[in-house]
Amino acid sequence: MVIIAIKDAKKYLGQEVEIRGWTHNIRSSGAIAFLQLRDGSGRLQAVVVKNDVAPEVWDAAKSLTIESSVIVRGIVKEDTRTPGAVEIQTNSVAPVAIAQEYPIGKKEHGVDFLMDQRHLWIRSSRQESILRVRDEIEFAFREFMKLRGFVLADSPIFTPNAVEGTTDLFEVKYFDDKAYLSQSGQLYQEATSAALGKTYCFGPTFRSEKSKTRRHLTEFWMLEAEASYMDWLENLQLQEDLIVHTVKRVLRECAADLALLGRDTIALEKVAEGGFIRMHHRDAIKELQAMGSDIKEGDDLGADDETILTKKYDKPIFVHHYPVVIKAFYMKPDPDEPDRVLNADLLAPEGYGEIIGGSQRIDDLALLEKRIAEHGLPKSAFEWYLDLRRYGSVPHSGFGIGLERTVAWICGLEHVRETIPFPRLLNRLQP
Ligand code: 4AD
Ligand code: MG
């Protein structure tokens, strides 16, 4: 007897197999029971015909409830209703645990209820597909970085200081002292890239942003890359290549999941061609004003601005050269345009908006000291970071890509809360 994963069932046509999973649904019409099985790899129908099986097998099939765990044996047959698909002609049914009445039914549930039931909700086909695409995106990220010669150098999560501003830090007790949960691993990547040339980290990041939007989590995953001797333009090309690599891989490996999610893959194919748009911040403002936004010269782009701008184009947009005054302390001003930094945000199309933030970093010691002071940051906490400019400073650049926003965009989802197994939001820490 061969134990198989449902996704491989087609390869076993005509053979007897064993499937270990759950009954996500059951239908029965007098003398035939249809068990809708899932095992994490896929879904498959097992047909039990009363007159073809022993009475105990029929009784076992009848005892199953939604989400009972069960081991089914039978012959893999072509499913006559769906061409190319297969089903199981069942010989034996062994319940493992009969489930109590399942709280998630067929009726429409509100989002809050489903979020409370997140530990069970992830068993639904839609959530399963999203999590599989997330896995593929994470794999594509790591694969790309490896192919490009980046070394994974994990940044710490407990940190002594802020990176992206001091307002959204989570403070934790650290023995007799305090620490913060990392907002970004960037500063450490600047150190590791000076040791190893090109490095990245990929892990959880924390921000106590009091934002209740479809783009914000308090705990999210970010891949942060940093490369010595890379200038800001090479940085943009690297980001574009990462996105193209990732979208191509997901289109290739997750076609069934994207179809289940109803994703318009034409829009993704367009992105996979490359040729992303590059727009100076000043021009982005002009374009937004022409579209009716009340944004003013020098303003940061709001979420609504990003939405209308990215709905206009079918490629991702790099908005570069933001004003120095609205950006982080470490970004390098453009020598030709000193009130602007050599940065770019990458905005995903179809209204999704920012998924990447990146820049060339200040490599001059005196300027960096000045910027730290201007931002009111404690210099003592940054002495080690300043050392990177004291000992063999080089021009260098990097970026951070938010995993959940990328998953939301690639899957075509309304909200980031469905992109991570257990989302952490302003008002949600359960389950
Ligand atoms: O633009 P951010 O703040 O950039 C940095 O943290 C840099 N230190 C990165 C670097 O250069 N190494 O964040 C980068 C990305 C955003 O574009 C977004 O995709 C994601 O992180 N992000 C969030 N995702 C979900 N929820 C939040 N609250 C997020 N905040 C940022
Ligand atoms: Mg940003």
Count every beta strand, where a strand is a DSSP E run of 2 or more residues. Answer: 19
CATH class of the largest domain: Alpha Beta
The separation of the N and C termini measures: 39 Å
> Based on CA inertia axes, which overall geometry fits?
elongated
Structural class: alpha+beta
SS field, number of helical segments: 13
Which small compounds were modeled alongside the protein?
A: 4-amino-1,4-dioxobutan-2-aminium adenosine-5'-monophosphate, magnesium ion
What oligomeric arrangement do these chains adopt?
A: single chain
What's the arrangement of secondary structure elements?
Blueprint: E1 2-3, E2 16-29, E3 32-38, E4 43-49, H1 55-63, E5 68-78, E6 86-97, H2 111-116, H3 118-121, H4 125-147, E7 151-152, E8 158-159, E9 171-174, E10 177-181, H5 186-196, E11 198-206, E12 219-228, H6 232-253, H7 255-260, H8 265-272, E13 277-280, H9 281-290, H10 303-312, E14 317-320, E15 333-334, E16 337-341, E17 343-348, E18 353-360, H11 365-374, H12 383-390, E19 396-402, H13 403-411
Parallel strand pairs: 1-2, 4-6, 7-11, 13-14
Antiparallel strand pairs: 2-3, 2-5, 3-4, 5-6, 8-10, 9-10, 11-12, 12-19, 14-17, 15-16, 17-18, 18-19
Descriptive report:
With 431 residues, the chain is α+β, with helices and mostly antiparallel strands. The chain folds into two domains: 2-97, OB fold (Dihydrolipoamide Acetyltransferase, E2P) (Beta Barrel); 118-418, Bira Bifunctional Protein, Domain 2 (BirA Bifunctional Protein, domain 2, 2-Layer Sandwich). Helices cover 32% and strands 28% of the residues. The chain has helices at residues 55-63, 111-116, 118-121, 125-147, 186-196, 232-253, 255-260, 265-272, 281-290, 303-312, 365-374, 383-390, 403-411, and strands spanning 2-3, 16-29, 32-38, 43-49, 68-78, 86-97, 151-152, 158-159, 171-174, 177-181, 198-206, 219-228, 277-280, 317-320, 333-334, 337-341, 343-348, 353-360, 396-402. The strands form four sheets. Strands 7-11-12-19-18-17-14-13 form an eight-stranded mixed sheet, with helices on both faces. Strands 2-3-4-6-5 form a five-stranded mixed barrel. Strands 8-10-9 form a three-stranded antiparallel sheet, with no helix packed on it. Helix 4 (125-147) crosses helix 13 and helix 6 (232-253) packs across helix 8. The protein is elongated, with a radius of gyration of 26 Å. Bound molecules: 4-amino-1,4-dioxobutan-2-aminium adenosine-5'-monophosphate and magnesium ion. 4-amino-1,4-dioxobutan-2-aminium adenosine-5'-monophosphate binds next to strand 12, strand 18, strand 19 and helix 13.
